[in-house]
Each structure stands twice: as C-alpha cells, then as structure tokens.
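Structure in, sequence out. Go:
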C-alpha cells in the first residue's frame, strides 16, 4: 500500500514534461501606477451602476471653424485640436445638467453638487493611464484650454505631474479616438458619476438638404452612474453637447 498512487496521478506522472517551459512565460511585478489603476477600476465597477449611451455627430462646421481659428492664432504658437472644443461644449452643458457634475454620498443619503467644473482628461503614458485635471474649465477660453492640455500632456510624458494635478476632478473625458478607436464603453472614475468618450473622426455618407454627401462624423460614448443619473437626463446632456459640436459658433456667444 505504501507505493499505491491513484490512476489520475499515474497519468500525470507519465505525461511528458514540456521542454523549455520556463522560457514561455515571464513575470513582471505590478508598478505602483498599475496597482493604482487596477484598484480604481475595480472600485468603480463595484460601487457604481454603469449605464452607457453612444451617438454620432456630423462636425464639418467644427472642422472648418477649427481650421480658421488655427490660422488666426498661428503666430501665437498655439494649435487647437478638437479636444478643447469638446471640453468647452461639455463645460457649457454641465451648467444645465449639474447632476452629471455631482457626487453620490450613499453613507449620508445625499447628492453633493459641485459649483465648479474640474474636468479630468485621460492621458496614455509609457507608465499607464493618468487623468490630470483642468480646473474651472467653464471659465477658460479655447486657447487657454489648448495651452493647459499641452502643458499637462508634457508633464505626464515627463513624469512630472503632481498629486494636485490629479485630484478634485468632477467629470472626465477620454479620447480613445486619438489612437484609432471608434466606440468604447469607458469606466467612470469613482466617485465621479460620468465620463465622456471621443472616438476617431471618420468620413461617412450623411444626408444634408436631402442629398447624400460625405461628412465628418465624430462618434461619442458616455458612461454614467445610473443610481443618480436617469437615461433621459444623460440623453438631454448628450444632445446639448452634440449641438455645440455641430454648430460650434454657439460656444462663442
């Protein structure tokens, strides 16, 4: 009985061992930033009721407006991407939909409304995802937003962001379209209640004046915490943001 081995164990013993198996995998310790990302993403999914909405908007007027403005400010060494326009549109719309800029305090059974708009901008770096914050975005011009985005991106790339750069966000934006994505379902940065995603702008057939023409189409995705934000509310917010992007001169008034 001393030498008895179950049949299953005998089969395992007879199974040939793979040569060089140790070369087929490798282990890498989690970096501090990756541990933080993992913790925050899991906390968000566990503590919010994610709901997402997707849409598209034809932005040929925005394409033309951006080109004209870049010509006007060329000597200032500032170049407008589409992101400052999206930030401006979101900041304007949040004034009319404050619940999307709020926070849910379940422990005290209340909603905390923020009378300021601090927009977190998700940025891809060699170390992983970081979300620096543009404070009081509603009070800044397009060129001020562009300048701040550039500064934050450079500091993120050079690992020079401070804790102050990363805290107190009230709403977040992610631009996965900058690396080719079209639609996504972004994860809300808890305890915020919403995140807005921008996809890759594509030329697609659209109908204008009862004619099929080639338009410039921007896809968007938005995730919200359904515990505090109803579907109708997020739809009205998205409609307002897309209205600004479709007719950007409204943002200049």
């Amino acid at each position: 009985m001393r030498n008895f081995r179950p049949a299953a164990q005998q089969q395992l013993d007879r199974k040939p061992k793979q040569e060089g198996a140790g070369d087929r995998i490798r282990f890498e310790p989690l970096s501090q930033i990756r541990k933080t990302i993992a913790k925050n993403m899991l906390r968000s999914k566990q503590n919010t009721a994610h709901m997402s909405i997707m849409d598209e908007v034809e932005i040929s007027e925005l394409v033309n407006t951006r080109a004209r403005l870049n010509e006007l400010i060329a000597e200032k060494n500032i170049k407008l991407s589409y992101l400052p326009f999206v930030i401006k549109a979101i900041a304007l719309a949040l004034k009319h939909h404050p619940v999307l800029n709020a926070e849910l305090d379940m422990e005290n059974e209340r909603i905390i409304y923020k009378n300021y708009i601090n927009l977190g901008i998700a940025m891809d770096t060699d170390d992983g995802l970081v979300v620096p914050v543009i404070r009081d975005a509603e009070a800044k011009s397009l060129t001020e937003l562009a300048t701040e985005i550039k500064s934050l991106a450079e500091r993120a790339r050079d690992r020079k962001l401070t804790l102050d750069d990363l805290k107190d966000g009230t709403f977040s934006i992610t631009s996965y379209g900058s690396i080719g994505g079209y639609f996504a379902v972004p994860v809300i940065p808890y305890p915020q209640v919403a995140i807005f995603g921008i996809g890759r702008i594509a030329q697609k057939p659209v109908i204008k004046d009862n004619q099929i023409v080639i338009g410039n189409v921007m896809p968007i995705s938005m995730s919200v915490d359904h515990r505090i934000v109803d579907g109708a509310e997020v739809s009205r917010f998205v409609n307002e943001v897309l209205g600004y992007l479709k007719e950007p001169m409204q943002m200049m008034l």
